[in-house]
């Protein structure tokens, strides 16, 4: 996948970035700088950035690690929704057994 080609089709990059921030619940923080965000908000921004290009493979290392339970569950729902809708492969590293249980395959290290 070529991100430049992928981004030139459909909505503008700005529209996709705004939609990604809405998906992780940060539409009200659109104009904030990183030093004005909490650790969990910064983590959700990182997830939104990863989603903008609609990747074929998404690597997620403890994506809910710094988030409260409710927000973490919402982020995981978003990631699994991406997998289902866009045929994205998700490689997830987690200590959360519930999140791991949603995966098609589990490898324990």
Describe the overall structure.
Helix 2 crosses helix 3 (39-52). 50% of the residues lie in helices and 9% in strands. The model has no long low-confidence stretch (mean pLDDT 85). The chain has a two-stranded parallel ribbon with strand order 1-2. Strand 1 (57-61), helix 4 (69-86) and strand 2 form a beta-alpha-beta unit. It has one domain (3-101): 3-Layer(aba) Sandwich (Rossmann fold), CATH 3.40.50.300. The termini are far apart. It has 109 residues and is mainly alpha-helical. The chain has helices spanning 3-8, 13-23, 39-52, 69-86, 97-101; strands spanning 57-61, 89-93.
Biggest pleated-sheet summary: 2 strands, parallel
What structural class should be given to the helix and strand makeup? mainly alpha
Using only C-alpha atoms, the radius of gyration works out to 14 Å
**What ranges have pLDDT less than 50 throughout 5 or more consecutive residues?**
none
How many beta-strand segments? Answer: 2
């Amino acid at each position: 996948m070529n991100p430049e080609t992928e981004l030139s089709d459909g909505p503008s990059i700005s529209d996709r970035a705004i939609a990604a921030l809405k998906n992780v619940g940060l539409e009200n923080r659109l104009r904030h700088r990183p030093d004005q965000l909490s650790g969990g908000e910064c983590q959700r921004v990182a997830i939104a950035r990863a989603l903008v290009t609609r990747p074929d493979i998404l690597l997620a290392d403890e994506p809910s690690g710094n988030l409260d339970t409710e927000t973490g569950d919402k982020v995981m729902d978003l990631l699994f929704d991406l997998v289902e809708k866009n045929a994205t492969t998700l490689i997830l590293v987690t200590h959360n057994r519930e999140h791991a249980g949603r995966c098609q395959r589990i490898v324990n290290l």
